[in-house]
């Protein structure tokens, strides 16, 4: 059926064929250039800063440069990611601007992700399918928000999607009788997955599955070489854990205990029911419905073309389930890779008519139906879309950071830091304050930590904004409101929109 439904091009002059072939590529380049310009403008209009986990990567990188052992354990300290620590070490050389450069790099990875989704959709199906999938990704604002906050999930997803695009291209160029040694695609895919596996362990599973796929038709020497590439992620991760903590499985043990403390674990029985809701939150319900329809169409009309996006979808779901089985955090952004695969299939639902013979009745009707649905979706979204929440979130991130810099730069606060440690309501502001003030882990404490007592001397920072209260003071269930009560003997010396500083010397 696949061969019967694919487009059969009619003879044309070479010059005309070249022009037509160049048009989609030219449009894609122009659109990508405009996207880069828009991202650059957004980078300066909304000066955001790294999220909690990413700031710790910067701090760990700074500790490594100082020839100190990174602090992997502590009150709600996140799990380490080896490649992020390497990036943090390099950016620490820049000093204070390193955190903004981190955001710039993650935004660049977001653009790379969009380009990868387009390429995957174009290679697996058609340029229009790729363009629609990329457009849908751009309108899923959760992904852009992750990029604006510097989440390592974005470069991880970009590497995995480009690995899938590379495999799709390799599969199109090889035949069932061609040896793997005739191309470097298999090694390139595994190198990308190895790098991704130093950001998130889910890539280990993807690399292992891919090795099983390519190894059966390779020589023994090639199998050993590809196995070595697939093992880079887990081996280097375990080596990092062992070098710092003495336990090669430290990240696995520590992540499970942290997920239990933060209430992010889900029983295995609840994972199947949670996934549809998570997918609907990530891609939104209408797009999820279109993705299911597109998946069915792709499997019926072009099963070979659907193989790589389908593998990406199944692999993303499988790793999410394995995360739940391992007892780690089961949150919706860990399904983000699988959600990207769904966007490609949604692109098939809207642009799959390009797989049909030009001029056919079904193609024309499908194209008209897609145009009508797209027009309705644009008009409907224009009426219900409210960007105020995103504007408020992004503006708050930049303004709150600036206020924290202002508070910590106050001379009376700096004098107070010579008398004792810096305390903050909970764990959320700890890495930000450490980075800004260049303080070691032992000098910055979270008052929500049940293991510490508020010191008699030092500096205490308290949240003064209602908007910031549940982000930087009472961000976790069970945190006491007493973390917002200054102790006796502390004098208020500085007040800004979001924070106030109390000092006791």
Strands ordered across the widest β-sheet: 2-1-3-5-4
Unreliable runs, pLDDT <50, ≥5 residues?
1-21, 175-184
Which oligomeric form is depicted?
single chain
Q: On the 0-100 scale, what is the average pLDDT?
A: 86
Beta-strand content estimate: under 5%
The SSE order reads HHHHHHHHHHHHHHHHHHHHEHEEHEE
Which bin fits the share of residues in helices? 55-70%
Radius of gyration computed on alpha carbons: 25 Å
How is this structure best described in words?
This protein is mainly alpha-helical and 505 residues long. The protein has two domains: 2-384, no CATH class; 390-504, no CATH class. The protein is built from 22 helices and five strands. Strands 2-1-3-5-4 form a five-stranded mixed β-sheet. A hairpin with a 3-residue loop joins strand 4 and strand 5. Helix 5 packs across helix 16 (303-326), helix 5 (98-124) packs across helix 17 and helix 16 runs antiparallel to helix 17 (336-351). The model is unreliable at 1-21 and 175-184 (pLDDT under 50).
